[in-house]
Amino acid sequence: MNPRTERRTLAGPAGDLVCALDAPDGEARGLALICHPHPQHGGTLDNKVVATLARAFVQRGWRSVRFNFRGVGGSGGAWDEGRGEIDDALAVVAALRGDGEALALAGFSFGAYVASQVAARLRPEQLVLVGPATQNFTVASVPAGTLVVHGEADEVVPLASTLDWARPQAQPVVVVPGGSHFFHGQLPLLKALVLRHLGQTDSLTFP
C-alpha cells in the first residue's frame, strides 16, 4: 500500500494469518479491521477496494489492518465456507486491539459478510460494508449509522439483493451510478464516500 506498511504474521485459529498494518500520523483514533473478498475467487488483502478502504481509514486517523483469510497468500489453514473466516477476523482483532481501544470494521463483498458478523459480536464504533455479498451469505443486520455502498451495475452481487436485505431494517444504501462490483474507475469516488462518512459520524447506534 505504501512504504510504511508493516507486514507481519499473527497466530490464528487454523494457522498463522498474514497481515498488513498502516498507521496514521500522530495518535490513532482506534483500530480499523478491513476484510477482503471471497478467498476462492482471488480475494486477498491487496485487493484494490480493500486497499482503498484502508487508505480512507488511515486518512481519518485510524490505524488499519488488512489480513489474508485462512488458506490465502501465506495464511495457514483452508477455506471454511465463511465460518472459520469469522474466527480469523476475531483473532486478528483480539491480537491487535488495545484495552478499551475504539474499533472500526469494514469489508468488501464476502469480507462485508464477515465484517457484519464480527460487528454483531463486538459492537464497533464504525462499520462500512461495500458490495456486501447478500446473495450467497447471511449478512447480519447492522446498527444505525452503518455505511453501505453498492454499485448500480454490480455484476457479482445484484443491487436488488442488497436492497432486499436492507429494506426490512430500513438501512440506507449508497448506490454508485454505473458502478461495477469492483468499482473500476470509481475508487476515488468510493474513497470520498467513506471519508465523508467517517468525518460526519461519531459512533454506531445498536438496538
Describe this structure in words.
- Helices cover about 30% and strands about 20% of the residues.
- By secondary structure, it is an alpha/beta fold.
- The protein has one domain (about 5-200): Alpha/Beta hydrolase fold, catalytic domain (Rossmann fold).
- The longest helix is centred in the middle third of the chain and has 14 residues, at about 85-95.
- The N and C termini lie far apart (about 35 Å).
- The model has no long low-confidence stretch (mean pLDDT about 95).
Salient structural properties:
alpha/beta, eight-stranded mixed sheet, 8 strands, 207 residues, 29% helix, Rossmann fold, globular
**Coarse structural class:** alpha/beta
Rounded Rg = 15 Å
Helix fraction?
25-40%
Main sheet: strand order: 1-2-4-3-5-6-7-8
Largest sheet: 8 strands, mixed
How would you summarize the topology of this molecule?
Blueprint: E1 6-12, E2 15-22, E3 31-35, H1 48-59, E4 63-67, H2 83-96, E5 103-108, H3 110-122, E6 126-130, E7 147-151, H4 159-166, E8 174-176, H5 187-200
Parallel strand pairs: 3-4, 3-5, 5-6, 6-7, 7-8
Antiparallel strand pairs: 1-2, 2-4
Helix pairs in contact: 1-5, 2-3
Gist of the model:
This protein is an alpha/beta fold and 207 residues long. It is built from 5 helices and 8 strands, in the order βββαβαβαββαβα.
